Known about the structure:
By secondary structure, the protein is α/β, with parallel strands linked by helices. The protein has two domains: 19-30 and 266-353, Aspartate Aminotransferase, domain 1, CATH 3.90.1150; 40-259, Aspartate Aminotransferase, domain 2 (3-Layer(aba) Sandwich). It is built from twelve helices and 13 strands. The protein has helices at 12-19, 40-49, 62-72, 85-95, 111-118, 136-142, 164-171, 229-238, 246-257, 259-281, 304-315, 340-353, and strands at 27-28, 79-82, 102-106, 123-127, 148-152, 176-180, 205-210, 223-226, 286-288, 295-300, 317-318, 320-321, 332-336. Strands 2-8-7-6-5-3-4 form a seven-stranded mixed β-sheet, sandwiched between helices. Strands 9-10-13-12 form a four-stranded antiparallel β-sheet, covered by helices on one side. Strands 1-11 form a two-stranded parallel sheet. Helix 1 crosses helix 11 (304-315), helix 3 (62-72) packs parallel to helix 9 and helix 10 (259-281) packs parallel to helix 12 (340-353). Pyridoxal-5'-phosphate binds at residues 84-86, 109, 152, 156, 180, 182, 210, 212, 218, 223.
Amino acid sequence: MTSAPPSHGGDRVWAAALARCQDNELLDFSASISPFGPSAGVVQAIQQALPRLPHYPDPQYRVLRQALGTALGLAPDWLLPGNGSAELLTLAARMLGDCSEVILVTPAFGDYFRALTGAGVPIRRLVWDVFQPFPWEKLKELGDGRRGLILNNPHNPTGALLPRREILPLLERFAWVVADEAFMDFLPPPEQESLLPELPNFPNLIVLRSLTKFHALAGLRLGFAGAAPQVLTQWQNWRDPWPVGVLAEAAALAAIEDQAFAQKIWRWLPPARGELEQGLNALPGLKPLPGAVNFLLVASAVPVPPLQEALLKNHRILIRDCLSFPELGDRFFRVAVRTPAENQRLLAALGECL
Ligand SMILES: Cc1ncc(COP(=O)(O)O)c(C=O)c1O
């Protein structure tokens, strides 16, 4: 195996080799995952599900779909669990195969390119200068009824929250719209701009959600899609049976119920992000962009790769360089918001390295 620089955050094996330590000794700001999870309730649910290991999960995931539906105010057949939202993105890309091309506003999450290329779907980039407003007008012009669109809301890597009122007119103009809402849970419900409630109004809408970030279950793999029942039935015919194991199923049920955990995240995030943003702003040559969720994109006056290397070698701290986003290049990095003490460690280390 080569040890090429990673194209996702959270490549702990690569980072640990560079930092000459075990991966559990790293302080990982590169993957935007809640520092508090998984919750005790989720861990307990996984433990209690261990006796179910000899059995296959329900191939229809009836109990989980019912629980998701109750939590989200949708009928269960509009929702489908998956092996992380990445699995569901692969299926969504295949669904977009009848589009003339699919528009990606870039910089964009790299996995969209993987999924669309794998499905043989032509991609058109609409480049967004992240210091400028989101290109809504350009998107409207591109909507010709035959193209598809993948939107990421809140947007990774900028953290921008896109208003639902701007997205809704696009649903009339594109053959398919996929809304990747992997980070939406980090906003309390009144502040969310989710398109899930719009599903019954738009048969061409697909919403992807992840439980791996908010509930810190990246290693378990867990997400769900919202779409019209005929779309989801098609996906079940395409994919392997049982992509969500019994442990992930049990974890999902517990996670959906855990309101106390959600409240804790919503209380922690705004002040922790505010402090981190202020601290980054106070460092020479760094300019964080305003972000709505649990990570910040930071413009850097100095090239990031040597900074990333110094943080790893001297402090065992991993930040996400943005080399895999060609529009951003080597003068941006992304950091997750972690606990106040960990954020201070990052700021102190950055102060030393800069
Ligand atoms: C924007 C975005 N969508 C989807 C995913 C994939 O998440 P999951 O772990 O649910 O497959 C990620 C993971 O980094 C992401 O950043």
